[in-house]
TrEMBL record:
Sorted UniProt keywords: Membrane, Transmembrane, Transmembrane helix
Sequence intervals crossing the membrane: 6-28, 40-61, 67-84
GO annotations of cellular component type: membrane
Native source organism of the sequence: Plastoroseomonas arctica
Compartment(s) where it occurs, according to its Swiss-Prot or TrEMBL record: Membrane
Protein name: DUF4149 domain-containing protein
Keyword Transmembrane helix tagged: yes
Major location (coarse): membrane
TMEM205-like domain: residues covered: 9-97
Transmembrane helix as UniProt keyword: yes
């Protein structure tokens, strides 16, 4: 049963991450006006990170007995997601608000935070893909 839970959590997690990065985010920014798109994405990110956190944690628990290294990797994905959601995302939002209010000095911090969040999200996606592929080969 744990095998099925692990497979489900990993597949749903990877599919959701790919959908968000490849479909949802580009579609929002190409089809909606900038201010609306930014507000929509700001509202979606906490839900997205919660989705990643729950599925990564579920996969970690389900993998713990058979594949402890993979379980630890998924626990690290969950922990990083918690920091992204509770630490980096609020900082990026504050900097974005400051830029919109005319504080040009906040722009480099926003750009760096945004870039870091994109890099970490892509790294997490690759890690989840690797764990899913490894699980499928076991």
């Amino acid at each position: 049963m744990a095998d099925l839970i692990a497979l489900f959590a990993l597949a749903v997690l990877f599919g959701g991450m790919v959908f968000f990065a490849a479909i949802l985010a580009p579609l929002v920014f190409t089809r909606l006006p900038g201010e609306v798109a930014g507000g929509f994405i700001r509202a979606v990110f906490p839900v997205y990170y919660l989705f990643v956190l729950i599925n990564a944690a579920l996969a970690a628990v389900a993998l713990a007995f058979d594949l402890p290294i993979d379980a630890a990797v998924m626990a690290a994905v969950a922990a990083l997601t918690l920091w992204l959601r509770q630490g980096l995302m609020p900082r990026i939002n504050r900097l974005s608000d400051a830029v919109k209010a005319g504080d040009a000095s906040a722009k480099p911090g926003f750009d760096a935070g945004h870039r870091l969040s994109v890099i970490l999200n892509m790294a997490q996606m690759l890690v989840v893909a690797a764990v899913l592929a490894r699980w499928a080969l076991v």
